[in-house]
Design a protein that fits this description.
about 45 residues, mainly alpha, 2 helices, about 80% helix
Length: about 45
């Protein structure tokens, strides 16, 4: 279950990040990593 949760979080974050990149508002890699961890925690709860 943990792997599936993280996979879902990565999908959400990278989709958002790609959209922001297209709008020239790209995030730093550390910000993306933090967002993935936060999203994973939110999905679990």
């Amino acid at each position: 279950m943990e792997g599936k949760t993280k996979e879902l979080a990565v999908s959400f974050v990278l989709r958002t990040s790609n959209t922001m990149k297209l709008e020239e508002q790209e995030n730093l890699k550390q910000h993306i990593k933090n967002a993935i961890e936060e999203r994973t925690a939110n999905i679990k709860n």
